[in-house]
Every structure is written in structure tokens, then in C-alpha cells.
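Listing S7. Sequence submitted for prediction.
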Amino acid sequence: MKHPNRREFSSGLIAGGLFASARKALGNPSVSVKAVAFDAFPILDPRPVFALAENLFPGKGAELGAVWRTRQFEYTWLRTISGRYVDFWRVTEDALVFAASMLRLDLTSNLRARLMEAYLAIRCWPDAPAALRSLKEKGIAVAFLSNLTREMLEAGIRNSGLEQVFDHVLSTDRVAAFKPDPRAYQMGVDAFGRRREEILFAAFAGWDAAGARAFGYPTFWVNRQNQPAEELGVMADGSGSNLDDLVHYIEAPAHT
């Protein structure tokens, strides 16, 4: 049986209605940015998790990581669609068990715990502190708006020395619906108390960029992996390879 990849699965979501209100990107937002809602991974660097996978399973870690990541997000979508929400920690562990089973790897309880706990040890990308400081100096509020649990997000904040930086830490646990469900994106509007047009969403994944733009957020795709845009009928307003690009985008004349 052929398992759908992320792009194929995302295309199915369109047919299912999650992107029924998708619009083409309209170019740079015409209103000034008052707040930025970040997915976790434009800020937090997940690469050490998958480096550990290669260390624990030499020669198989890259394949394990690829299957793990794919199932991780497919499970969030399936659980949201079916109304069977569990938090991202559980989803991540389930996806890891599946990936190891699929590849016939001996995932002992100790190895499983080490890989899971690696998510609680991740730190920010090197460009994150300066970019966040620049946004705060401009009077722009910042928040995490992520599928990750609050515990996972707060661990990343502590590990990175970013305490007191974020105005809000928004996990989809609040609404029991993972992105790209509109209920997840609505958390930013509710927390900031601003119109969605005033809140820039910073995405790590192409599907999240499309979901946020379809919701109505001006959206910047922090495309650190240099991936092509998803074919979902809607595009981010802007993109770049790092957070410096995001700061420059906000500073552009169209935002003032």
C-alpha cells in the first residue's frame, strides 16, 4: 500500500474543506504589523533530535527521521479531522513507534525515551535572539502559536535563555485542534486582541504558511529548508531563509 506524502495528504485536506476558504496571496499586507505569531520551528532548531536518531541508528537515522516527521504531522491532521485529539507529545511518540516499526528497527524503551526527551533539550536557532529583540524594540508583540505542547515550548524557551520575551505561549492544546484548523490560528487573534490583518504569522512549513494565509493572517514563510511552496491554492505573502529576512520584511515600506 502506498502511503501518502505530506503534499498528497494536504491536497486531500483541501477536498475535505479545511482550505475551502483559501485565497491567493495578496502581496505585502497594507496594514502595519502589531504582533507576530511564530510557529515553534522558525525559533527552535529541531535538528539535534534527528542527529540523535542517526547516532542511535547509524545509517538508518535519516530514514527514521523522515518517516517520523511525516507521520508526526499526518497524525495531527488525522486526529483533528476525526475529532480524536491528543497532544503533540503523544502524537510524536506514536509517530516514532510507527516509524521504527515500519523500518524494522529495535526501538527499546530506553531509545524511545532518549529520542523523545531530545525534544525537551532543543534550543533556538542562532539568529533568533537578535531578531526577537529587534521586534520587541519596535513595540511588536510576539507569541508562539504552535502544535507543540506548552511544556515543549517552555523547555525551548528556557534552554535558549528567552524567558520574558514572549507575550503569549499558545499551544493547540487550548483548543484541541491542530493547525491548519482555523480554531488553532484563531488563538492568536484572541490572545493579542487584534484584527488578524495586524498579526503576521511566521511559518516553518509550507503547509502551515498556506494554512495561516488561508485563515487571513499576513504570512511570512521562514523557509530554512529551502523547500518549494506547497500546491494548496494559497501562498505566503513573503518568504526568506531566516529570521533576519523576516525582520527586514516587516521593516519594508509596505508595513509602515
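Caption to Listing S7: primary sequence and predicted C-alpha cells for the chain studied. DSSP finds ten helices and six strands in the chain. The longest helix spans residues 61-82.
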